[in-house]
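pasting input
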Amino acid sequence: MSDDLLNPADAESPVETVELLTASGLAHEELVELVEFGVFETRQGAAGWSFHSRVVHQARRAVKLRDAFGLNPPGMALALTYLEKIDALEQRLRELECLLPR
Amino acid sequence: MKFKDYYESLGIERGASETEIKKAYRRLARQNHPDISKEEGAEERFKEISEAYQTLSDPEKRQAYDELGRHQPGEDFRPPPAWDSRFWQGQPHQEEDLSDLFEQMGFRSSQRRRQAAGVDFSIRGHDVEAVAKLSLDEVCHGTQVTLERPGGNVSIRVPKGVAEGERLRIPGRGGPGIGGGPDGDVYLLIQLLPHPLFRPAGHDLYLELPVTPWEAALGAQIEIPTLYGRVLVTVKPGSQAGQKLRLAGKGLPQRGEGTGDLYGVLQIVMSKEISEPEQELYRELARASSFQPRPKFTGGTIHV
């Protein structure tokens, strides 16, 4: 057992553009297009855009889809939108399942 | 080193064309992509086919792979010595995975190209992804999980208030960068272990709350379990099945401030064995009651 204890990043700390690109492997032009499509929310940071930490996970998901299926940014935007819609429906389904007897 | 049959992974012949390789990969990727398939083992299969595709789609790597010859999958083998010195700069006796070898090879060939062009070259370390399966109790209080890594295990602090499906990111603690590149990140996916009583939905918890017909009819005080000890709830007279009793703040804690709620979902249950005195009371109830449970069924003509 190591005494090295890793601390996760604070979910509420914003992530700057450079960090988002490095962590996800997204190209800057792709990020701009995905923001224009409205799939990533931005805030105004100290140096340009900054993002909520969940955008890192969205961006990594987009990159995995890009690499697996050769998607361009419109394709990534569409896939992300559908997947997020499915996530929301699955969440709703879980809530409704909780109302049924096991 | 263990041999992997990349052609078999993609379900293609050894002589397959580049187009056939791409087609086979795309078809399998669509079936097994972790965002698409929720089937058991899909993620593992996806990694396997991605690894195969990364090697076979690159002509230089494919040629090198073909030079390894044919072996049984999982069979121990050593690459030929000439091959070793051409592509490989790792420790000769170190146990390595075949995929590491091809990754290094890709890196070295692009490094050679870049260095020839006079460009400094560095690549970022790998991201490390792991899953933490936590009990509701661990989620409530926060915990630590141990991540097993080749260079020694590390502990990761899981703050209280994480939810099912959440990903924690630990920047810069993944695989080391090469040539001055930054280190990768660690991602920890949170999954909740099933609990015998409580079902989580986000930060709310649901509890099945069975009541007798007379408790539902007359109302009752019922003691129920929560994650924070037992509490007394009031079932109102005339309660209906499926009705939710909300206990504010008895759900799972959220990050920062606030706590989810606990919902008791009423179920009116009936004993399977009904004794003669009970039956007599039900008959008396049937005579005394004018309750019509199926008002919409009356009137009209029934076609069979």
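fyi The interface with chain B takes residues 1-2, 4-9, 11-12, 19, 22-23, 53, 56-57, 60-61, 64-65, 68-70, 79, 83, 87, 91, 94-95, 97-99, 101-102 of chain A (CB under 8 Å).
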